[in-house]
Design a protein that fits this description.
The chain is of the alpha/beta class. It has one domain (11-308): NAD(P)-binding Rossmann-like Domain (Rossmann fold), CATH 3.40.50. Helices cover 45% and strands 14% of the residues. The protein has eleven helices and twelve strands. Strand 1, helix 1 and strand 2 form a beta-alpha-beta unit. The longest helix has 27 residues, at 107-133. It is globular and about 60 Å long. The N and C termini lie far apart (44 Å). This is Ketoacyl reductase. Residues 302-333 are annotated as: Disordered. Residues 304-317 have a biased composition (Basic and acidic residues). GO terms for molecular function: oxidoreductase activity.
Length: 333
């Protein structure tokens, strides 16, 4: 806690902060003068992010927690009060993504997606509201364009993100009475490198291939640093909603005006993706499904982002027997 003579610095709690967009949002908040409470599932994976952010002048406290657990939100908000005595910004960014056809997914995949991306937003936000009210604080709910319109082979993710968008929009209406602003962040595809940590099922290599290519194309995806800057700026200004990438803006508006048309179009797109295997096995981290050499050459931006934004130092958890973490630079990965 700050000494009485020290200047009071605002404090931000960021979930999913060890890598990718969450790390970059935390970095932007540090540059804006915030001290930080960082949360991710793995304590070791948080350490590289912590070192980088402390080097930028922020005081950083880390907590390893699974935000899908009911008690995690209370623990996180309690830590913010004990360590800093205040909370000014909550960034609910924890996420998980399973890629594969519906026929190869399991009920557990839907439960996990809802635990992380709906309850992992709702519980921390509700727990933090009284604390944020004391500072007229801000909440950034990082959702996805997948919460505005459906996408093939991302059914658990899309369902959880739709629920997250609905909760965040509804909370925006009521939190203002307590002096708390809620910003609904709706990113489209971003070059964070996180595609290597997606959980793939079905024809794993083929599923990883289409997903990684989409996250690498400059005209389709957005630079993650620029996305983090825009999200933080919108949050600190109290903007109700921000949709990132031109395609996401166009897609959300077209779907709102002509949902039957977009559903027919996306159904046709689904027919171009790999078919199911019918195995129904547990999803495994995408980096365990090597990409063909010719495709690796098309995905250099995604690979570079993974190396810069700690996707290697905090990989996805083991989801199946014999699955281990990919080492950076491993041939075929």
């Amino acid at each position: 806690m700050a000494t009485p003579d020290a200047p009071v610095r605002p404090v931000a709690l960021v979930t999913g902060a060890s890598r990718g967009l969450g790390y970059l949002i935390a970095r932007e908040l540090a540059d804006q003068g915030h001290d930080l409470l960082l949360c991710a599932r793995d304590a070791e994976g948080l350490q590289p992010a912590r070192a980088d952010l402390e080097a930028r002048g922020a005081r950083v406290v880390t907590v390893a927690a699974d935000v899908g657990r009911p008690e995690a939100a209370r623990e996180l908000v309690g830590t913010a009060e004990r360590e800093f005595g205040r909370l000014d910004v909550l960034v609910a960014n924890a996420g998980i993504i399973q890629v594969g056809p519906q026929a190869d997914l399991r009920e557990e995949d839907y439960e996990q997606a809802m635990d992380v991306m709906f309850w992992g937003l709702a519980r921390p936000a509700l727990e933090a509201l009284p604390v944020l009210a004391r500072t007229h604080g801000r909440i950034l709910a990082v959702t996805s364009i997948g919460g505005k319109l459906p996408a093939p082979h991302l059914l658990p993710y899309g369902a959880a993100k739709h629920a997250a968008v609905g909760f965040a929009e509804g909370l925006r209406l009521e939190a203002g009475r307590q002096g708390v602003s809620v910003t609904v962040g709706v990113p489209g595809l971003m070059r964070t490198g996180s595609s290597r940590n997606a959980l793939v099922t079905g024809k794993a290599q083929a599923e990883r291939s289409w997903f990684t290519v989409g996250a690498s194309l400059p005209l389709v995806s957005m630079d993650a640093e620029r996305a983090a800057r825009r999200l933080v700026r919108a949050t600190l200004r109290g903007t109700p909603e921000i949709i990132l990438t031109p395609l996401a803006n166009i897609g959300s508006r077209v779907h709102a005006l002509a949902p039957s048309t977009t559903l027919r179009l996306l159904t046709a797109v689904e027919r171009l993706l790999p078919g199911p295997t019918g195995t129904g096995g547990p999803p495994r981290p995408a980096y365990t499904a090597p990409l063909p050499g010719w495709l690796r050459r098309l995905t250099g931006l995604d690979k570079a982002a993974a190396e810069r934004w700690h996707e290697h130092t905090d990989p996805a958890p083991d989801r199946g027997p014999g699955v281990g973490p990919e080492q950076p630079g491993t041939p075929g990965r």
